[in-house]
Amino acid sequence: MLPSFLSPVSVYGLYLRRCFTAAGLSSYTLDVDHETTVHFWAPTNRTVQKPAVVLIHGFGPAAIWQWRLQVQFLAPHFNVYVPDLIFFGGSSSTSSERSETFQAASVGKLLDKLKVEKFQVVGTSYGGMVAYNLAKMFGEERVEKVVIASSGVNMKRSNNVALVQRAELEKIEDLMLPATPQQLRKLMSVSVYKTPQFLPHFLLNDFLHVISLFLQTIFFCFPTNNTDRLIKIIALFKTFLRFVETIQRESEGEKGASERINHRKR
C-alpha cells in the first residue's frame, strides 16, 4: 500500500479540491439535525443575484470526483452547492435510514439551514434518484428545474445474467467486486468499450485500496437486492474510469503541446 503522499488517487483528490477552490467554492461541514452531519461545497461568497443549483453525485467516492468540470463551468453563473450524500465523503449519520428518500431529506435540511429558498437540482446515477425525491418533497414552489442523468432505472436482473455469462463467471459479485488488479482488469475487459492502454498494477492497487470502504458501504450500508447493488457498483466503476481518462487526456494534451513546440523549432 502506497503512503498517501505517493498515492496517485489521493493526489488526484487534492487536485480536485484545488479545482473546486479555484471555482470559488469552499468546503464546509454542518449538522443538519441531531443525527446527521453533511459535508458540502458552497460558494465562498454567495451572490444574491445568481440562481442556485444543487449537484448530487452518484454512488462512489466523494462529490468532488464527479463534478469537477461542471463546477468550473457553472460557478460563474450560479451559486453552486455540492453535498456529499450521507455515508459518502465527509457526510455521516447515526440514523438507521438508508433510503434515497432519507438522502433527499438530508439534502433538503441542508438547504434549509443555508436558507436556499429556490434552486435547480442536477443528479447523476444514484444521485438522480435522490434529486427526484428532493423535487418531489419540495415541489414547484422551491425546485425550479430538475435534471436526472444516467440513472439506471430500467436495469433488469436479466442484464446481470448476460454479463456474468459473458465474463465466464458464476456470480455477479465475482465480477463487480474486484479485489485484485487482475480482477479489475477482467471487469474492464467486459464493461468498457475502449479499455485504457496504460494502467499499471500499482495504480489499480491504489484505486482498490482507496475505494475499499465504499465497496463495504455497498453491502453493509445499503442492504438491497443484487440489481440495486450492481447499479451502484457500476456508478463507482465509472468514477474510476473518469479518473483514468482525465489522466490520459491531460497526458495527451501535454504530449501534443510538446510536439507542436518541437515542430515550430524545426
TrEMBL record:
Annotated AB hydrolase-1 domain residues? 51-159
Q: Which InterPro entries match?
A: AB_hydrolase_1, AB_hydrolase_fold, Meta-cleavage_hydrolase
**Top-rank lineage group of the source organism:** Eukaryota
Protein name per Swiss-Prot or TrEMBL: AB hydrolase-1 domain-containing protein
